Amino acid sequence: MKHLLKLNIVVLALTALVMVGCNTNDVVDPGPKVAPAAPTNLMAKSVSETKIGLKWTASTGTVIPTGYKIVVREKGAASSQTLDAGTSTAAEISALTEGKIYEFSVYAVNDTAKSAATSVVEWAPARRATGTFKLYSSNNTTNGSGLAIVGMTSPAVLKISQGDLWDICFDDKTAGDPRIGSPGQSRYVDNNYKFPNGKDAKVVYLATLQYPGVNSIDEIYETSALAIPSTNGEKMLQLNTVTGTTGFGFVIGTKNADNSVNFAKIVVKRVGGNLVQGTGADSFVECEVSYQYIKDVPYALRAAFERYNSSVHAPRGKF
Question: Which SS3 state, helix, strand or coil, does residue 147 take?
C-alpha cells in the first residue's frame, strides 16, 4: 500500500510539471519586428512662402507599415527633425523660412522597425498669389494684357503702357492665333524688343518642361529643380495647339540686370472647355501664379539648375 501511495505522488508531481510547461497563458516572444519596404516617389510642391507640401507612394509588400516618418533638414545644417505623418502618404511642412532650401526624405515604420528612406528631395517654399489673374485681349482698353511679378509687392495685371514691367503677357494681335509667354517675343514690341513707351521688354525665358493636364498649381508636384534654357528660351506658347479638357502649366525665369533669376510657375486655366474665354476685345485667359520673391531659388535644387552668362541685352532671336 505504501509503494502504491508513492507511485501516485510521483505521477501527480509529473502531471503538474507537464501542465505548468504547457500553460497557454505564457507570453511567447515574437522576435524582432520586420521592417516594411521603403516608400517611393517622394515629390514636393510649394504651398506658400512658409509651407511645403509632400506626397509619396506607399510601401508595398507583405509588411503593412504602421506609419510614415518625414525627415526634414535645412540644407547645410548639422541636425534634422523627424515628423510623424501617421499612415497618410501626403503631408504639409509648416513654419519654414522663405529663401531657405530644405531637404526631405520619408521612411516607413512597423512599430520600431524602420524601412530604408526615399531619395532626398530638396525644396524651397514659394509665394502663392491670391486668387486668379485675368489677362485681356490686346484690343481691350480698360484691362491689362500682361502680368508683372518680379519686383512687385504682389503680382499685378498691367496695361501695355507699363509693358516693360510684364513677366508674361496674353497676345491675340493676330486673329485666330492667341498666345501667352515672353513679352519680348510678343507682337506688342518692335524688332528691338521695345514697347511703344520706348522701354525694353524684360528678358523672360520659358522652361522646356511644361505641365499638361492640370487646372491648378496645387496639382503640380516635382522632384528636381526648375530650369530655364541657357539660350533661346524666350518664346510664346500658341494656345490653339493645347489639346485636352484641362489647362496647362509652365515655368518662367525672369533674368535680372545682375544675371540672377527669379522663377515663377503659371497655370492657364480652362473654363467651360476653353483656355481663351470671352469674345472680341473682352477675350481673356485666367491664370494662377506661384513665384519666388528671393532670387536664384528655383523651388527644388535636387538637380543643379542651368545658369546662363549672356547679358540682358544679348541677341534674343525674336520669332
Answer: strand
Q: Where are the domains of the chain?
A: 40-123, 128-291
Q: Mark out the alpha helices in 75-145 (DSSP H runs).
A: none
Q: Check: CB of residue 103 under 8 Å from CB of residue 72.
A: yes
Neighbours of 33 (CB within 10 A): 14
The CA-based dihedral angle spanning residues 257, 96, 211, 149, taken in that order and rounded to the nearest 10 degrees: -40
CA atoms within 13 A on the CB side of 97: 8
Q: Which CATH superfamily is domain 40-123 in?
A: Immunoglobulins (2.60.40.10)
Neighbours of 260 (CB within 10 A): 14
- Is pTM beyond 0.85 here? no
Beta strand ranges found along 168-316 (DSSP E) = 168-171, 179-181, 204-212, 236-238, 248-255, 261-268, 284-291
Give one word for 304, left, alpha or beta, with left for phi > 0 and alpha for psi -120 to 50: beta
∠ CA 150-156-160 to the nearest 5 degrees?
A: 95
The Cα–Cα gap between 62 and 82 comes to 25
Residue pair 159/152 in contact (Cβ under 8 Å)? The answer is no
Beta-carbon count within 10 A of 56 CB: 26
> What's residue 14's pLDDT?
34
> Residue 74: pLDDT band by 50, 70, 90 thresholds?
very high
Plot region of 111 (φ>0 → left; ψ -120 to 50 → alpha; else → beta): left
Q: Distance between CA 206 and CA 250 in Å, rounded?
A: 7
300 SS3 class: strand
**Cβ count near 101 (within 10 Å):** 19
